[in-house]
Amino acid sequence: MKKDRNLTEGNITASLWLFALPLMLGNVLQQLYNLVDTWVVGHYIGDRALAAVGSSYTLMTFITSIIIGLCLGTGAFISMAWGAKEEGKIRNGIFLSFVLIGIITLLLMAGLYLCVNPLIRLLQVPEETAGDMKEYLVYVFAGFFLTFLYNYFANILRSIGNSVIPLAFLGVSVVLNIFFDIYLVRDLHMGIRGAAVATVIAQHISGILILLYFLKNYPQYRVRKEDMTWNRENIRQIFSLSGFTCLQQSVMNFGILVVQGIVNSFGTTVMAAFAVAVKIDTIAYMPAGDFGNAFSFFVAQNFGAGKKERIQEGIRQSTISVVLFCAAISAIVCLAARPLMQIFVTEGCEELIRVGVQYLRTEGACYVGIGILFVLYGYYRAVNLPFLSVVLTVISLGTRVLLAYVLSSIPAVGVFGIWIAIPIGWFLADAYGIGYYWRKMKNQ
C-alpha cells in the first residue's frame, strides 16, 4: 500500500512532522544495528571487543555517509522533478544516479578491503584492539552494497512523499538483526565475527525488500529503454546535488573520525567510553537531522512547484519546531546521562561511565546548535545551493578539530577539550548559515 504525501499542499507543520516521524524512527532503527552489536559484544565478549566495535562504528559512519550523501542529493533532484510533475525526468534521474552511485559503491568496497590495515593504523587503534577491529570490519564491508541499495531506494521513495515504507522494511531487518546478534554471539559463540555477520544479514534483507517494493508498486518510475540516455543537464544537476551533499556528509563524519583518533590517544577506557556515549549522542540528536532531511524534501518539492511563499513560511515553522524539539532532548540526555551509559556498560567500570557521562552532558546541553545546522543543510541543498552546506560543514569541522587538538593537549583540560570543541563548531556554522540567508537569500 502506498503512503505518498504531497508536501506542496496543506498545513506545513503537520505535513512536515507526519513526513519526518517515519524518517526519525527509521534512523533510530538504523542506529540500532550497531547499538545491538555494542550491547551484545559488551555483555558477552568483553571491553576489548567493545572498543573495537566502537571504533568500527565511527569508521563505518564516515564511509556510509559518502553513500548517504549521494543518495540524499539524488533525492533532492527527484523531489524537484516530482514537484514539477516531470515523470520522464524522474526516470532518467533514477537511471543516471543509480549507475553513478552503484559504481562508486563498488569501487569504495574494493578500496576498503585493500586499505583496511592502513585505516586501523590511521585511527591510532591500540595494538590489543586492532585484531578484533579488523575481523569485524572485514565481515561488515561485505554488506556495503546492500547499504547503498536500501538508502538509495529509501531516498527515492521519500522524494515522492513516501517515508513510511522505508521504515517498515528497516524495522523488519532490525528485529532480525537483534535475533541473529544474540544467536550467533551468545548461542553459537562466534565472537565479534558473529556480530558482524548478523548486521550483514540484516542489511541484505532491508536492501532487497525495498528494491522489490519499489519495482512492484511504482511501475511509472521503472526505467525504460528511452530513459537510458546521458542527458547532460540532468547529469550536471545530479552531480552538483549529489557531489556536494556527499562532500558535506563525508566531511562532517570525517570530523568525527579525526576526533576518534584523538580520543584513542587517551587509552582504552576513554576509547570505550566514547564508543558508547557517541552512539547514545547520535541517536539523541539524529531525529533533528531527519527533520532537516524532511524539511529538505519539503523545500525541494515546493521549489520544483515554484511555491516560494510556502517555502518561506516553512522555514519559520521548521525553525520553531526544531528548537523546541532539541531543547526537550537536551533536558532528557543531561538528566539521564548516567543511566543511559549503564545500559551498555557492566557494573564496576566506574571511570568508563564517568567519562561517558561527561561527554553526554557536554554535547547534550547544546543540541539546539546542531538542530538548526541540520535545517540549514536541508534548505541549501533543496534550493540548488548544496555548496553552502559544504561551507557550513567545513566551518564546524575546522573549529572542532582545531580546538580538540589544542584544548585536549592542556593537562588541566584534557579530554573535556575534545567534548566542548564539538558544540562550539556547531554554533559558529549556525551563525554563518543564518547570516548568509538574511544577506543573500531572503530578498530574492
From TrEMBL:
Principal subcellular localization: membrane
Transmembrane segments: 12-33, 57-82, 94-116, 136-153, 165-185, 191-215, 254-277, 283-300, 320-340, 360-380, 387-407, 413-438
Provenance organism: Hominifimenecus microfluidus
Job of this protein: Multidrug efflux pump.
Xref: PANTHER family: FMN_FAD EXPORTER YEEO-RELATED, MULTIDRUG RESISTANCE PROTEIN NORM-RELATED
Family: Belongs to the multi antimicrobial extrusion (MATE) (TC 2.A.66.1) family.
Membrane topology of this protein: Multi-pass membrane protein
Protein name: Probable multidrug resistance protein NorM
One Gene Ontology cellular component: plasma membrane
Keywords, ordered alphabetically: Antiport, Cell membrane, Ion transport, Membrane, Transmembrane, Transmembrane helix, Transport
Subcellular localization: Cell membrane
CDD domains for this protein: MATE_yoeA_like (cd13138)
Gene Ontology terms, MF aspect: antiporter activity; xenobiotic transmembrane transporter activity
Any one biological process term the GO annotation gives: monoatomic ion transport
